[in-house]
Specification:
Layout lengths: L1 E5 L4 H12 L3 E3 L11 H9 L5 E4 L6 H6 L1 H21 L3 E7 L21 H16 L2 E7 L2 E2 L10 H6 L4 E4 L7 E2 H12 L6 E4 L8 H12 L5 E4 L1 H4 L14 H7 L6 H13 L7
Parallel strand pairs: 1-2, 1-3, 3-4, 4-5, 5-9, 6-8, 7-10
Helix pairs in contact: 1-7, 2-4, 4-5, 8-11
The chain binds NADP nicotinamide-adenine-dinucleotide phosphate.
NADP nicotinamide-adenine-dinucleotide phosphate binds next to α1 and β4.
Amino acid sequence: MKVVLFGSTGLLGKRLYKILEENNFSILAPTREDVDLQDHHLLENYLKSLNFDILINAAACTNTDYCEDHKEECLKVNWLSPLIMSKIAKDKGAIFIHYSTDYVFDGSKDEYFEEDAKSPLSVYGLSKSYAEDSIIKEGGSYYIIRTSLLYDEGGKNFLSIIPEKILSNEEIICTYDLKSAPTFVPYLAEATIKLLNSNAPFGIYHISGGYPATPCEFIRIYEEVMGKNANVKEVSAAQLNRRAKRPKNSFLNSFKFTTLVGFKPYPIEHYARRIYERLYKKQDRSS
Ligand SMILES: NC(=O)c1ccc[n+]([C@@H]2O[C@H](COP(=O)([O-])OP(=O)(O)OC[C@H]3O[C@@H](n4cnc5c(N)ncnc54)[C@H](OP(=O)(O)O)[C@@H]3O)[C@@H](O)[C@H]2O)c1
């Protein structure tokens, strides 16, 4: 099976590339240097020139605060590019997999299901919501995967580097009033392959970490796993005074995916322990 993967240099894209390779897909992974997703003419010509069975879009302008001040770029990359991708995938009879976000919701509910009404609070959320609407309107064979607060082992993502900060007693500033479903990227990448192989009906799926947590609660989990106290400064989202508004509670309920595909995430403790043990335990002289 031939796959075209956009966003292979990103947090999710790197893992997707790896798992696609492990599953013997033939992968073409254009980077920003090959196709800048702000150049729609180039994108269209590029995709039209290829033959593929599956098109995966893990590329996006993901800096929520940056998007507030760069609306045109954000809409071009996050909305209009996936629209072009979905049209061409449909013309070629290919499956289109596109990632979306919990930020399409306003956070006023306790949890969100696939069919809940959207009401984004930010330019980023709006751009992702427009993309969903356009892909659905276009029809074709698509999976829109909404996910939430990604973290991986390694790299610079906030939730992955917490053990390092705990070990060095560095102050960690975290929000106590933004609850979501932190999602371990290797789980999401594997879940994507399982969805693809499942014959589940096309449409929108929530694939998240499955357990609600604020960033501060996540740090408490690391404290338990490591048996150490973190130097934590708990703040409200309002205190951070960031450009973009975030939903207070954007927990994505993944019941539809887990029941149809039968692949559930482990509790957060499992992944926190894995990250600590694989990356930081050797540095921890007290353990
Ligand atoms: N991160 C999260 O917490 C989170 C939460 C919910 C949903 N999501 C969604 O999950 C998906 C993957 O997110 P991620 O965190 O893996 O993203 P990421 O790490 O920020 O990576 C974004 C990718 O998009 C590429 N890209 C951005 N602008 C581009 C452009 N103009 N032309 C070509 N490529 C461009 C980047 O290329 P460069 O390396 O060249 O910049 C990179 O490969 C996205 O759809 C995102 O909206 C993420």
